[in-house]
Amino acid sequence: MPKGKRKEARTYKGRNNGLPAGSDDETETLDTASAISSASDQQATITDGSTDVENDETTAQENLEDKLQSCIEGISQKSAKGRIESLRYLRAILGQKYLIEIISQNKMTITDCLERSLKKGNGEEKSAAAMCGILLLIQLGASEEAEEVFKSLYPILKVVLSDASASFTARAACAEALGLAVFIAAEETKTIEDAMAFLENIFKLAFAKSPQNCSADFYMLMNCAVGAWTLLMSVASDSFCWSSRETHLCKLYDLLSTADMELRITAGEAIALIYEIARANDDNFKGQKFDDLCMSLKALSTESNKFRAKKDRRLQKSSFREILSFVETGNFVVDSRQIKVNAFDTIVVETWSLQIQYNALCHVLGTGMSIHLQENHLLRDIFDLGPPVALDSIPSSKCSKQERHMIHDAAFKARTKSRKRLRDIKAVVTAGE
Hints:
Elements lengths: L2 H12 L9 H51 L5 H17 L3 H6 L1 H14 L2 H18 L3 H19 L5 H18 L3 H15 L1 H4 L7 H18 L4 H6 L1 H11 L5 H21 L8 H12 L8 H20 L8 E3 L5 E3 L3 H14 L3 H7 L1 H6 L18 H32 L1
Antiparallel strand pairs: 1-2
């Protein structure tokens, strides 16, 4: 406690008509002075702490922008290993933070480097470049800049995806990037339908090969192609979906018997989406092989073969129970229906279309999905969240850890001083007796 307040307390005692030591009035005065001093010290400490936090946030933002600039410079270097490393860092930064200003300033440089990596890089570099390309489009959002980037990358992605000499890993990344790129930036329905036909030609390969000749990377390519095709189906025109429903259901039904668990689940989700779109036009739609389809879905939802991993069996059962329930009854039963974004916004997932779109974006953004849902205009438009909410307007339900620590320290200090005075007063009274 400041020395001035101690002197003030002594002076007050001398003017109090000779009150004896240890009286209630003196104790109350000392406690009041101590509380005022503690509150003042606490407020000053918290203010200094808030300033330090703001300075730390500014410094972190500057460091992040410096790292991003270094990555942009690194993806144009001559060393292939250095380019791959820079592409990985660039993907991590673009996925974790929404940096529209600096990205807009460097979009042409990034696009040129990504084109070069997709054309001339090895499989690993092409995979990283394809993922960076889709993250670039997510950052730019629904804008003319995104359309320019899309027109540059779209034909190159198709070339790599159809190149049989390219690695399955690179082609799988290009398939996922192609689907998301068309989903974000394509405005004409013809572009969507052409991309779906192109992806369909890719996953047709799954019917031509026997399971013994298929590797895990091959199934990964098929899974990404079917997933991208399903994503585009969620935004395709109703007339296109309705006219091709039977053909697509037959092809996807055959994929339910493949050896890869993820491909079976992706095909099942595509079937559920087709039924959702078809029943929007005809409530009683069932399809040609409805009974056989339900039997297959039920078998997959109850499969207990020991040669499959326990985790895979659990995931498959859970997924196909939801798909079977929707196909039979039309009830959408997904466990995580509500996704909380912040104090104001919540995404309510009630359709397979929305579920597939959310999963596709979440897969490419990873843990940065929550940040982009709060700040990225594109994602907020997709999920009908409205314009971004300022962080200052979001009510804080609790103090920060630093503020709680300061408050506890100030309270402990005041309590210790108060107890010390009471002990001294008690000792004086006991000695007088």
